[in-house]
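User: I'm putting together a teaching handout on how sequence relates to shape, and I'd like one worked example. Could you take diguanylate cyclase from Methylophilus flavus, show the sequence you're using, and then write out its predicted structure as tokens right after it?

Assistant: Happy to. First the sequence, then the structure tokens directly below it.
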Amino acid sequence: MHRYRLWTRLTQWIILIPLMFCMVPLASAAPALLGTTCINQQGVIIASIPLQGGKFVCQSVVKITQANLYVIDFKNTSTIARFQHEIFRDGDLKDNLSEEKDLLSILKGGLSGNEHNPFMLRHGRTVSLNPGTYRLVTWVQSPYYLTAPTLSITDLASYQQQSNISAATSLLLLGILLGLFIYYAALGALPGHLTERMYAIFIFGNLVFHAAALGAFNQFFHWHWFYLTGLPLLIANLAYVSFICHLLGINQFHRPRLYQLSLIASSLLIALIVLGMIFPDWMLEMSRTGIVIFLAFGLFCGARLSMQRQIIAQLYLLATLGFGVLGMMAISAADATQHIFTIEQLGLFAVTIHAILLSLLVAYKLNRLHHEKEQLLVELQNTRSLALTDRLTGIPNRHALENKLLKLPLHGCLMFLDMDNLKYLNDQFGHETGDMLLTLFSRILNDKLSEYGQLYRLGGDEFAILCHEDDVEWCQHQLEYTHMQLHKEGFAGVGASMGIVFAHEATTTDALLRIADKRMYENKRIRKNRKEMMQVLHP
């Protein structure tokens, strides 16, 4: 029974599979572009168009099997200054008259041309062709080529779908680079943010080059000149070396060998900039060499410092390796058969991913620096607090008082206090008892003063109070209350002498302290004489 069901299912699938293939609509026959031959200005046949620029003419045979609207484009590159497609009916041309008669269409365009571009960031041109064989003659001219241009012909529907995806992706990537540039340019404008400044220059150079190479300037701003657009890329390479040094902490004092290597890399890049200005047709080749130089320098520095377990260097090494892999993929895709993305768009993708990764790395470093700064501020604040606090009593000390006296308002008042009989307690009962008295005295009086005054311990048995001149009597009452509380706690005969001076009585801090100290000792003598008199009257 089970075998019967198994064979039944297999029979059903065997019958359904051919039916499924029959139900799928057959794809229309794609146009074929055959036998492309290119000739340079000297009339010499060449295998491929060189990257150093020039004017070339290519001839191809186009075979059309279905009447439709077709798009002629360069499937792998957009860095072309001018081009012209001439479509002829197939046939042997004997003279110029027959050539003009067989000419069906002339299609022009390019980054330096004024012609309207019907497709976003692409060089596609539409032509209506009936079944048959045609001859396509293409003239191309450019100061340099990012890769050898390769012709393609596609039906309009397929081309529109592909060009929409590629254009949307390119605009998104350019927008990301623009946003990163604005952010880091604003951040780099602040003092002390040289890393972000160099990074902004690196992003800007790549943004200008890719926007020009893809035709964004031509499309949106009608900027038709791009002869030296490789120069910002060379400057970006130079800024990248400086960016690496600041990111990884490489300077003449810290890691001097790597710093010397950075000087060599920078010198080579400066030489490439000079050569690129002298030989503009080779500028793009100079830019390629510059990328190799800064990538080699960055990988070496990242690997060297990663072995020292530096987290920033390790993260940078990963980001650079990712950029290198994407860059190699973009270069190897130059001769790809698919034409949904050009090499300029693949390069833009690699640069944008690298820029995003580096942005995350810079943000991580800034966050670490901010965290370390906060920790240092907390430690500094704790140290400052310890330096301004009396360890025994926990109230501000003499240094804190001197800082406050520098900003003492005219209505301020300084009160000096000197405790009585502390030395007697230390001698008779030990320093632990004396410390207990100091702690109890400062706690009770400081709590009673509240917001009307601040108690300070100057050292030993000396204290001070800062208050408003209108609160002097209040502070005196709180001192008397503290005396009574100390007596209740068993510290009989303990008190404090007081010397009061007002801010308007002296012009300097030292003068205030001298007056307060003098008056405090006068009050101590008065209190001592009064106590002795009371002992005589009441023996």
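A couple of points you could highlight for students: The longest strand covers residues 54-64. The chain has 15 helices and 13 strands.
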